[in-house]
Write a structure and sequence with these properties.
This protein is α/β, with parallel strands linked by helices. It is built from 10 helices and 13 strands. It folds into 2 domains: 133 residues, no CATH class; 152 residues, NAD(P)-binding Rossmann-like Domain (Rossmann fold, 3-Layer(aba) Sandwich).
């Protein structure tokens, strides 16, 4: 038995877009954020694609310098030369200011050929299929981390499950929704998300790797105990469980009596979600997925080049 995942609603297609335009004979520039001094809305490694027309896809500074970056990329395309450009603090472009006085360096690459990007895509696709992270020379003299598509297995009942699944897809998770009743199935499927039956749930410890999370959203908490046990046996980066502190204390005692140590049990985030004083299913979903995103980003930041 396997779980059926619904892919993220907005996957990152910048690499595919680059290959498409190069295949059509277009001159393009791939712009990579290679250094940040101060704050930045995007991490090092974020990329933009700029066409010869000045049109661009993606963002690096959250709208502050994208137009200038695109214009400088067009100049680089015409000259056929790569360049590294500074924006914000320490930049010669005094009219371009970044938030909080920060400065960023971007590398504008106009020399990488179609075959290079096709090779990169092939390697990335193979490693993602194997659920392995990869550090690769994405642009000259710079490496970029690619990770497998993050997955969340969400199990439970009611609209909190449906809203959480929808929000998870919106922020980039592939989602497996596991339901136990027809009402919940209908709530989830209205978001065009496929559902799995709890009765056919496979062993999560064999399915969930370090880029997978498990979130239990049951109201009948006896249904979650085997799920949480499987999650604790897996490498999941995040395990969350809905319920009050009293409920969480009861599940902790159950897991202790079934051989799990305190260090293992502490992996469970319960009550699940960050405290935003949520008062309805959508807000509760926001708090849950925000916590999952936080744990995923902590994992990615910890990864070392291989």
């Amino acid at each position: 038995m396997t779980l059926e995942f619904t892919p993220a609603s907005e996957p990152n297609n910048l690499l595919d877009d680059t290959i498409t335009h190069l295949s059509q004979g277009d001159n393009v520039a791939v712009v990579t954020l290679v250094n940040v001094d101060g704050g930045s809305p995007y991490p090092v490694g974020t990329q933009m694609l700029v066409l010869k027309t000045g049109a661009y896809l993606g963002q690096i500074t959250g709208g502050c310098a994208e137009r200038a970056i695109a214009d400088h990329a067009v100049e680089a395309i015409h000259k056929g030369e790569n360049r590294c450009v500074r924006y914000g603090a320490g930049s010669p472009f005094f009219d371009i200011q970044l938030p909080c006085g920060s400065g960023v360096d971007v590398l504008i690459d106009v020399e990488t050929r179609l075959s290079d990007y096709q090779a990169i895509k092939s390697i990335i696709s193979a490693r993602r299929a194997a659920r392995q992270n990869l550090v690769i020379n994405a642009v000259p003299k710079y490496t970029k981390l690619y990770t497998p598509s993050p997955k969340l297995v969400l199990l439970g009942q009611g609209d909190i499950l449906a809203q959480s699944c929808n929000l998870a897809r919106a922020v980039g998770f592939d989602v497996a929704a596991v339901v136990n009743d027809e009402t919940t199935r209908s709530l989830v499927e209205r978001f065009d998300i496929k559902t799995n039956a709890l009765q056919t749930l496979p062993d999560l410890s064999q399915i969930c790797d370090e880029f997978s999370g498990v979130i239990s959203l049951f109201h009948e908490h006896d249904l979650e105990l085997d799920v949480l046990a499987d999650g604790l046996r897996s490498k999941s980066f995040y395990i969350g469980a809905l319920g009050s502190r009293k409920t969480h204390a009861a599940r902790v005692e159950y897991l202790k009596t079934n051989g799990f140590g305190e260090g293992q049990i502490e992996r469970i985030h319960g009550p699940v979600g960050v405290d935003i004083k949520a008062s309805n299913p959508r807000e509760i979903g926001v708090s849950i997925i925000a916590e999952a995103v936080d744990r995923l980003n902590i994992l990615i930041e910890s990864l070392e080049p291989i």
